[in-house]
Automatic annotation (TrEMBL):
Name under which the protein is recorded: tRNA(Adenine34) deaminase
Annotated GO MF terms: tRNA-specific adenosine-34 deaminase activity; zinc ion binding
InterPro entries, alphabetized: APOBEC/CMP_deaminase_Zn-bd, CMP_dCMP_dom, Cytidine_deaminase-like
GO biological process: tRNA wobble adenosine to inosine editing
UniProt keyword annotation of Lipid metabolism present: no
Keywords from the UniProt entry: Metal-binding, Zinc
Lineage of origin: Bacteria, Bacillati, Bacillota, Bacilli, Bacillales
Record-annotated CMP/dCMP-type deaminase domain positions: 12-124
Length: 178
């Protein structure tokens, strides 16, 4: 297999798992919560766990997709850290500061996301570029927005979320809070 074929294969694999992350995001929206989904895989591309946002479903403000995936992985995450395994997380949106911290703690070595989050709480790039925890961030490979068509789909989910009654702006409006 030549290098170009290998690159194509890797890209196909990335696309496959990002689509699964997107499916989790769609499920989250159907549960009337923020549409983000995540999938963790090991170095052989076995799925370790999936997660999706459950903030409104569980009334838990920390129930983000990436944290969910880390929790759902159970002991495998600690085992992976002990054995220096190489896990990848695929997520539909750039991780927030909380999840970025979670990924560093969980020793995730590759982070791939569908959509940068410049308007919301996107935090991965801000923290990485702040010259803090450099040693940790250096160990992580990042891939931002590799597929435009998947990005369009995630953006459509976010647009739909704007209209959802559970969106904080709509909750405030209905509670008459400015
Ligand atoms: Zn998060």
């Amino acid at each position: 297999m030549n290098r170009q074929e290998q690159t194509t294969l890797k890209s196909d694999i990335d696309r496959h798992f990002l689509k699964l992350a997107l499916q989790e995001a769609e499920k989250a929206l159907s549960e009337n919560t923020y549409p983000v989904g995540a999938v963790i895989v090991d170095e052989r591309n076995n799925i370790i766990s999936k997660g999706r946002n459950r903030v409104h479903a569980q009334q838990d403000l920390t129930a983000h997709a990436e944290i969910g995936a880390i929790r759902n992985a159970g002991p495998l995450i600690l085992e992976g850290k002990t054995q220096r395994k190489h896990f990848t997380i695929y997520t539909s949106l750039e991780p927030c500061p909380m999840c970025t911290g979670g990924l560093l703690f969980a020793n995730i070595k590759r982070v791939v996301w569908i959509n940068n989050d410049d308007e919301g709480f996107g935090g991965y790039r801000k923290l990485r570029d702040a010259n803090i925890f450099d040693k940790r961030f250096h160990e992580v490979e990042v891939m931002e927005e590799p597929f435009h068509d998947l990005k369009v789909k995630q953006m459509a989910l976010l647009d739909e979320w704007e209209l959802n009654p559970n969106n904080i702006k709509n909750l405030r409006k209905s509670a008459n809070v400015q």
